[in-house]
Amino acid sequence: MSSVRRLMATMNHSGLKSGVSLWCRQSFSLRRATRAPLAVSYGGFRRFSVVSSSSGFSNDNREFVIVGGGNSAGYAARVFVEHGMADGRLCIVSKEAVAPYERPALTKGYLFPLDKKPARLPGFHTCVGSGGERQTSEWYKEHGIEVLYEDPVTAFDIQTQTLTTSSGKLLKYGSLIISTGCTAARIPEKSGGNLLGVHYIRDVADADSLVSSLESAKKVAIIGGGYVGMEVAAAAVGWKLDTTVIFPEDHLMPRLFTPPMALKYEELYKENGVKFLKGERIERFEAGPDGRVAAVKLESGHSVEADTVIVGIGAKPAVSPFEVVGLNSAIGGLQVDSQFRTRVPGIFAIGDVAAFPLKIYDRMTRVEHVDHARKSAEHCVRALLSAHTQPYDYLPYFYSRVFEYEGSARKVWWQFFGDNVGHAVHVGNFDPKIATFWLDDTGRLNGVFLESGSPEEFQLLPKLARARPVIDIAKLQSASSVEAALEIARSAL
Ligand SMILES: Cc1cc2nc3c(=O)[nH]c(=O)nc-3n(C[C@H](O)[C@H](O)[C@H](O)COP(=O)(O)OP(=O)(O)OC[C@H]3O[C@@H](n4cnc5c(N)ncnc54)[C@H](O)[C@@H]3O)c2cc1C
């Protein structure tokens, strides 16, 4: 039995699937005027559905609570509003000081040089990233949504359905959506990971701190050759800084790029003056006499001078204090089903923190990308508020955009859809296009990558990755251009 089916079978067995949908119906059919908690029972598990008054949140009961005020929370809030279920009913508990925003901007437009019109809030609050309305803090107020800023949830009592925030507030919830995202992986303090001038980038406060370092920086070291490394290195080029990218693998973006793909991007960065130290591991960061970072010491014995260090070595799902709803020990995060339900009735998890069944490839996964944050939020809230029961059927999609500041000689914009497994066929010479197709032994397409495509070409990618046509590998390999290769793939649909 597949892992997804096994999961579903376990959930059905425990009564969770029907339990949750029953409870949800119960939850939103409640009379809004009712203040007393209603008890709902699930095979011995007693839950209270709570209702708050529509005239604000004068009591401690909240009908719907979202913990985490990030990317997915913003999209979730929009669906509550669309269903007329936000006003006086929805509360968002946020660790950050600002309303939800499109987090990817932090390593893109936010880091543009100061004279090249950098992105700043309120410009990129959700849901502008997908062409939606800009939901500022006023938008939440106007829609009767309570947002508790800078007051993270520190404790959680599953029996009493109560959250405690760092300021000591006690919040009773009816339904709970956990959207706590990830935290940046850090270099230990004893290795200099907390020195002045060492940056991690997860939220707008981190980005502000980095920008203030860049203003006086001369030598920048970037630790990690993934998304954050590539994007911050491109930004540092815009600031005209001496930049070195250090990583243990033998090429950039090792989780997605093949060596030939990586080589093309590395050459572009090198033409822009960026240096790479590959196959190198960090031993520690060293401080100068002023206490600020001054050098990166490598295990090989090499040392790189740097007054500003940006660490982009991955992220960890922010599961605390919610571990009790069920961790996925293999891939991390909180385990959910195809409607984002945890094993605890009435508790959901979405976005980066959710370990969910990836239907198309029949496996459990976690996806740390904004497209999934948006879609999981929309799917979860629709399932919670309506009779919609279709399983989430996500097609993995990753993108990046760099060197986009005004005056940049070469903009980079790529998209990838599907699964990067199988034989990779590379087409194009990067002037400016390249495409890579991943195919299995029979020629069936698994995944497709395109750099600098036209809007029509980018629109073709998800169709190909979803349909998985069988393509003549020899024909694809001999395609004279990216356009010709895409046409060969399109004709196989
Ligand atoms: C710098 C950067 C660049 C990125 N670039 C891209 C990109 O180019 N393309 C792409 O597809 N994806 C990108 N991503 C990933 C994308 O931003 C995430 O997948 C997305 O933000 C996930 O949304 P989320 O709501 O799950 O988590 P988040 O947006 O991280 O929101 C989680 C929120 O929960 C808060 N929180 C955590 N714990 C608590 C608590 N106990 N109580 C209250 N609040 C809490 C956090 O402070 C945060 O505000 C990038 C991420 C980062 C950090």
UniProtKB/TrEMBL annotation:
InterPro entries: FAD-oxidoreductase/Apoptosis (IPR050446), FAD/NAD-bd_sf (IPR036188), FAD/NAD-binding_dom (IPR023753), FAD/NAD-linked_Rdtase_dimer_sf (IPR016156), MDHAR3-like_C (IPR048618). It is an enzyme of class 1 (oxidoreductase). GO terms for molecular function: monodehydroascorbate reductase (NADH) activity. GO terms for cellular component: cytoplasm. Coiled coil: none annotated. It holds the Pfam family Pyr_redox_2. The keyword Metal-binding does not apply. Gene3D superfamilies: 3.30.390.30, FAD/NAD(P)-binding domain. Its EC number is 1.6.5.4. It catalyses: 2 monodehydro-L-ascorbate radical + NADH + H(+) = 2 L-ascorbate + NAD(+). Its cofactor is FAD. Residues 64-377 form the FAD/NAD(P)-binding domain. Residues 395-477 form the Monodehydroascorbate reductase 3-like C-terminal domain. Keywords: FAD, Flavoprotein, NAD, Oxidoreductase, Redox-active center. Belongs to the FAD-dependent oxidoreductase family. This is monodehydroascorbate reductase (NADH). It comes from Acorus calamus.
